[in-house]
Each structure stands twice: as structure tokens, then as C-alpha cells.
Amino acid sequence: xxxxxxxxxxxxxxxxxxxxxxxxxxxPDPATVSGPGSIAGPDTVADAVVxxxxxxxxxxxxxxxxxxxxxxxxxxxxxxxxxxxxxxxSAAERVAWPSPLLPALPALIASHRGxxxxxxxxxxxxxHGIGTTLVRLLGADRVRVLPHPxxxxxxxxxxxxxxxxxxxxxxxxxxxxxxxxxxxxxxxVLILSADGRTPARVAELLTTRGYGGSPMTVLxxxxxxxxxxxxxxxxxxxxxxxxxxxxxxxxxxxxxxTVPLPCLPGLPDExxxxxxxxxKSEVRAVTLSRxxxxxGELLWDVGxxxxxxxxxxxxxxxxxxxxxxxxxxxxxxxxxxxASQLGVPGLKVVTGAAPAALTGLERPDAVFVGGxxxxxxxxxxxxxxxxxxxxxxxxxxxxxxxxxxxxxxxELGGDLIRLAVGRAAPVGGFTGWRxxxxxxxxxxxxxFPRTPGSDDA
Length: 457
Description:
By secondary structure, the chain is α/β, with parallel strands linked by helices. It has helices at 65-73, 81-84, 101-110, 130-138, 151-159, 198-209, 281-291, 308-315, 329-341, 378-385, 399-412; strands spanning 50-55, 76-79, 93-96, 117-122, 143-146, 167-170, 188-192, 215-220, 228-233, 246-251, 298-302, 321-326, 348-351, 366-369, 391-396, 415-419, 422-427, 430-435, 439-445. The strands form four sheets. It has a seven-stranded mixed beta sheet, sandwiched between helices. Strands 3-2-4-1-5 form a five-stranded parallel beta sheet, with helices on both faces. Strand 8 and strand 9 (228-233) form a beta hairpin.
């Protein structure tokens, strides 16, 4: 059971002038809604005070006395059609979520200004739920949250799993491929499902990845009177569709010969589809150490080739973001495929020639230039866009591109290294070293602006 399960199309209803459609109990994860004011609305929305009550499949019977009092006192009760049906009729005006919810939410809250608003949420409202969105919109001091046990807590209780030792992946608003980064032999994973078809998608993904022997358990309608548990293995999964309210538990077991794909930088070159334009594994590991991924930061991967740097940057932490800029359309398509297969389908791919293609992109925390160093204005544009404290890393394999990096090193400082890697290869009946092309790596950190009164001491 997901804490944020989409409502069937038939449940969507018109709400006070908003267009009805396939409403969802969830809104985009706050991590995917970037920038201040992303869900800003009328100024009057800031005056609203909202109480959010978590409710489970057990409905009214499972609510605490405090939660029941809030619902009794509410003048306006908001939630999905399914959630509203779990609460007995009262004097409160009932407002079912419109679709799409996110753009309508500010005006919806503002339209009930001065009234006692109570919002229903599945499980814990602050765990992939509407509570986090309301806090972003109104501020923490304008939102009161009364949580219910989350689907994760209930599932772990049924399975006897330690909550702190389980990785949770929400597929409610994300593609199934997002699961790839959590799949490691011996690990336990709980997946919040988008709908009843999610378990079958998970089973197919695990089997294709080489984890077909992994035990899978689907827990439906947790906490409700019709709770059901279905078990099997990924490769032998037999259920095409479960109930929409479900959570999937996986114990990852690798099949014989499955190559592990760790989240540390330096994945095998074979993990990427490419046409030769690929930052090789050893160089990639060093390059990423210079880029220094920090959770939540944004990278520009300029001249991305196969997209390996941007992909590994995002694999380093779920909150990391990256934009891959590639001039060749066929490579751009390949980058998207690589990102999906390696668990970061959220990688943004921009097709176009840099530096012109960089115009309008969100300001980065780090920039990697892997191709096009010699293009006029390339390094200057990347340096200008970089945030203070951000890292610019550029690689060169030709004399011409080395000359550019040497010039920039002389102008801006930083660090300049040359990396030479040799790989063992057959030489007749013996083994010898086959050298790769040496790579020059320039790293520079953009200084913070000088403040008045600072000195050189």
C-alpha cells in the first residue's frame, strides 16, 4: 500500500470551478518541484491555517481521538473521493481534489480563507504526502499534522523488518526504472506503488536486471479489513494486477553471473551504451571525485557523449540533479536510454550545441566539460553560470584542448593534473600494458564575491 495512491478515474469530480479529471491523492514529490515559489498562488493563501489528518485503510475506527476531534470541528474537509468516503458525514463542506491538483491547490486553499480547513492524507502526510506540499505552500507554522502509521511502518511490522534497515523507493510519481539504484544483493527494499500494475512492473525489472530469484511480497490494503499478502519471486511472479492500495517488499538476490552496479563512481564501461564517446571508468572516477557531488546539487554535463558523468553524479544521491547537453541527436537519445537503464530517468537531456544551448538553464553547482573545450566562449560561459563555491572540471585529450586548459589554469588557478592509465592486454602468448590516451583534468572552484571590509590577510 502506498501512502499516496492515485484515485480511479471514476472518482474524479468537479470542484468549485476546477476541471475534473483523473485525480490523485498525491502531488509531485517536493524534491521534483524546484525553486522558491514553484507552487505560489494568491497572497491570501498565506493567511490559511490547515490541519492535515493521516488516515489508513481502517478508516474512522483507526483514527486517534485527537484526529476525530479535528474532523468533527472542520468547516471544510478536503481529500480524495476514497479518503472522504472513510469519514462519516458531518456539517463540513466536502471538497474532493481536482485534477491536476498542484496548480489548483493555492487558489483552492485561498478560496476557503477564514474557515477551519482539514485535509485528509493517506498514512503519514509528511512521507511522500500532501503534508509536505502544504508546508512548502503555507509554511510550517501554518500547517498542523496529525499522522497515521505509514505504509512503510505497517509493512515492516507485518514482515518483521527493521524500518531503519530498509530502503524505501516511491514509484507513485516516478518511472519504475528509478528502482535500479536501490537494487543490490542482500538489501531489502520497500516500494510504494503507483497502482495495481506496479508489482508486475517491479518483477519484470528485477528479472531483466538479473535479480529474478528475489523474493517479492505484495501487501494490499494494509490495516484494513480486507488486508491481503501475496508472495512469490520476481521471475515467477504470477499476478498481473494487485489492488491499487499496495506496497511491494523485495529481498534482493542476484542471479549467478549478475554484475553489481554500485552507486560509487566508476561503473564498468560496459554498463553504458555508447559509440566510443565515453569517459572511461578510471578517468570517470577521478573526474567525479573532482566534481565532488553533494546531495541536492545540480550538475551540467556539457558535451555529454554517453551521459556517464551526469548519470553517475545522480546515482551518488537521490536528491542530485543533472542536465546533459549534447549536440548530436542520436547521442542525446542514447543518453536518455542509459539514464533510464541505470536508475536515473530524471536526468534532463538538452540537445544542442554549447555554449548557446546553455542559455536559460538553471544555474549549476558544478559543471563538467567533457567535449567542446575548444569551442569559442565555452569555458567562459560555464564559469560565468557557475554558482560561487561551485566546481568546474574540464577534461582534455588533444594538444589543442590542453592548450585551452593550460591558459585557463594560468588565468583562474585551480588544479591541473595529467592522468595516464594502462590496461593489461594480451601480447601474443603473454600479457602487456596497453596505454589509454592521457587525459588532462583541470579543476577550479569559483570564489565567493568579496564582501565590503574584507582584506587579503
